[in-house]
Design brief:
Blueprint (H helix, E strand, L loop, with lengths): L4 E3 L6 E3 L2 E11 L2 E10 L5 E6 L11 E6 L2 H5 L7 H15 L1 E6 L3 H4 L2 H12 L4 H7 L10 H9 L4 E5 L3 H9 L3 E6 L10 H11 L27
Parallel strand pairs: 6-7, 6-8, 8-9
Antiparallel strand pairs: 1-2, 3-4, 4-5, 5-7
Helix pairs in contact: 4-5
């Protein structure tokens, strides 16, 4: 089979972006039973993980897909500075129920600037800068993430039309460039907290994220009922 391609930066010549998948294994979790497959990006050497529901999408709909950027502070340590951990929990429960895949994209910490630089950006935020200004003060891109590997992985998995679990329209545009059609954007907003509301307001105002910034307490029915992150995650 000919490997799918992504477009080069000038969008004129297709550029191969080779990835390879490993064995598919069972992955029982607090959100239900999934199957998991590791993928290697042979351009960057970074390894990603596809976590998929064993249940087919309901009513013939396109599968749900979440592109989840690695966030050690939010996903693992339950940081209140972002909403990443709660979005991860929300997406896993919904994908298990309705069918689809979550791609856990490693190497995308801090919107692609890395863990150490993210902590430096946090220090600047504590000095009064917002999340965009902090990256700019460090001389770093506001968003350095690439979705070439993600688009390639989805294509290899046969997921050419998806319902994208995201508040970020840029992901829809990037997947379209990679040849994956987003037929619906499914919001993943979770209630904001005092510690992250400014961060989320900046994402809404300066990065065009589709957020309403409701502030109901966690556990009001908008977050997963079975989430082990309730009252601990950001």
């Amino acid at each position: 089979m000919t490997a799918p391609t992504t477009r080069s930066s000038d969008d004129t010549e297709p550029t191969p972006h080779p990835v390879s998948g490993g064995p598919i294994v069972q992955l029982p979790t607090a959100f239900g039973d999934f199957v998991a497959q590791a993928w290697t990006d042979h351009v960057t050497g970074v390894e990603h993980l596809a976590v998929s529901s064993p249940n087919p999408p309901k009513d013939g709909q396109a599968p749900l897909v979440r592109l989840h950027s690695e966030c050690l502070t939010g996903d693992v340590f339950g940081s209140y500075r972002c909403d990443c951990g709660e979005q991860l929990a929300f997406a896993l429960e919904l994908i298990h129920a309705e069918g689809g895949t979550l791609l856990y994209l490693r190497g995308q910490e801090g919107r692609g600037i890395g863990l150490a630089n993210k902590i430096k950006a946090y220090a600047l935020q504590e000095a009064g800068f917002d999340t965009v200004e902090a990256n700019e003060q460090l001389g770093l891109p506001v968003d350095a993430r690439s979705y070439s590997a993600a688009g390639q992985i989805l294509a290899e998995m046969g997921l050419h039309e998806v319902r994208l679990l995201s508040n970020n329209p840029d992901k829809q545009n990037r997947l379209a460039q990679a040849g994956v059609s987003v037929v619906e954007m499914v919001p993943t907003e979770v209630p904001s907290r005092e510690q992250n509301v400014r961060y989320l307001q900046t994402k809404k105002d300066r990065m065009d994220h589709r957020l309403t910034l409701e502030t109901e307490p966690v556990g009001n029915g908008k977050t997963p009922s079975r989430s082990p992150f309730d009252n601990e995650q950001d």
